[in-house]
Amino acid sequence: MKLRDATLAAHAGIPEPRSEIAPHTQPLYQTSVYDFPSIDSSLPALAGKGGYVYGRNGLPNSDALARAVAALEGAEAGVATSSGMAAVTAVTLALCSAGDRAVIQSDAYGGTPAVFRRDFERLGIETVCVDAYDVQAVAAALPGAKLLLVESISNPLLRRVDLAALSVHCRDAGTALLVDNTFATPLGCRPLEHGADGVLHSATKFLGGHHDLLAGAFVGPRALVEATRGVITRMGLHASPMNAWLAVRGIRTLEVRMRRAWENAAELAKRLAADPRVSTVYSTENCALVSFDVGSYDAAERMVASLSLITFSPSLGGVTTTLSHCATSSHRALSDKERGALGIGPGMLRLSVGVENIEDLWNDLSRAG
Ligand SMILES: Cc1ncc(COP(=O)(O)O)c(C=O)c1O
Question: Are residues 42 and 93 in contact, defined by beta-carbon separation less than 8 angstroms?
């Protein structure tokens, strides 16, 4: 039976197959190793042919998280990681070797260009940054590249790339199109339906939804997922049982959380656009982030310091509304010049809108500063 988003999300992680004494939710398998009655019986698990043997090779809770994300993204397979950056790292190392080239979106989450420039470049993987909204510029950078990594909704300007157009050029060039779908969530965008070859998530954000875990996921075709799983296993990048368990629990309310957060975000964007303290507002449909510019670092600091309900928390994706300062957090790895070129000034703040009552949120925001 083909299930719809709300059902898929609510049933995330329910153990299969069910028996008469099955617990309703998957237990937390907080173990690093499995026991076997004989050497013989351990061999299939040790050969990676099913079952569990050692935590670094994967455990039931991380597999449940991977299955939940794969189901929501409509992917053949998935693997869960210790963080979003672990997913970026693993799939890049699965695809690229020394001498290869990777193309990434120039306004990607700051941690992404940081790992490409500071680590992958050192390993001989050349990194080219492109304006991902200029399809012709991307097409020109693709020949010979092993991967193109873009975000379905960018941070913090909330711009959308044309995934369908990029996927055509990637196919022509033989380049894998990888999409970081953290901001959109699978409810807002399913990149595989637009021709992507793989999807990454920081499950730390909306999938988890409660600011109490770090995890990530990579989903896509089985062959690429298995190559990525190999890197994850060798390097020890799997999601921990507790974090994976919490992420699955978060996913079960994803649909209702996102609908409410999107509704609140659209209303706050409208009110901020009419607010004389604010010069520019960035928002997009079906997205729980709203960025806005209050003109200067001092004005941003005054606003942050005088909020009482909304907390200053340099992350995003929780049920409570949080605020972050892009220049000093998500984009701190970039130089002033690079941030300036992207339009991320010292007065830019980013709201991650939660599920609270909209009038309480607006009371807090409208009085701050
Ligand atoms: C869009 C995006 N991708 C990836 C990451 C990295 O995720 P993590 O912090 O779980 O490693 C972040 C973190 O903020 C992010 O915003």
Answer: no
Angle of the 84-95 helix axis to the 222-235 helix axis, nearest 10: 110
Residue 136 CA to residue 310 CA, distance in Å, equals: 41
Give the CA radius of gyration of the chain: 21
Rounded distance, CA 356 to CA 230, Å? Answer: 41
Residue 341's pLDDT is: 85
Q: Which of 182, 232, 332 to mutate to test the pocket of ligand 1 (most atoms within 8 A of CB)?
A: 182
**Whether pLDDT at 271 is above 90:** yes
Residue 207 amino acid letter: L
List the one residue out of 368, 353, 356 whose CA is nearest residue 268: 353
| pLDDT at site 338 | 83
Length of the chain: 369
Task: Scan for tokens 């009110």, then name that residue.
Answer: 271
Q: What is the pLDDT of residue 361?
A: 98
* CA-closest candidate to residue 90, choices 52, 132, 62, 129: 62
Lining residues, ligand 1, CB within 6 Å = 83-85, 109, 111, 151, 155, 180, 182-183, 202, 204, 214, 216, 330
Q: Confidence class of residue 17 from pLDDT cuts 50, 70 and 90?
A: low
Between CA 320 and CA 309 the distance in angstroms is 9
Residues 6+ positions from 98 with CB-CB distance below 8 Å: 123, 124, 125
pLDDT surpasses 80 at 23? yes
Residue nearest to ligand 1 atom 12, measured at CA: 202
**Which runs of consecutive H residues, i.e. helices, occur in the chain?**
5-10, 39-46, 60-73, 84-95, 111-115, 135-141, 163-173, 185-188, 222-235, 241-251, 254-273, 297-306, 336-342, 358-367
Q: Considering only CA atoms, which of 154, 232, 225, 161 is closest in space to residue 191?
A: 161
Give the chain's domains with CATH numbers: 5-251 (3.40.640.10), 255-367 (3.90.1150.10)
What amino acid positions are annotated as catalytic residues?
56, 109, 180, 205
Decide: helix, strand or coil at residue 34: coil
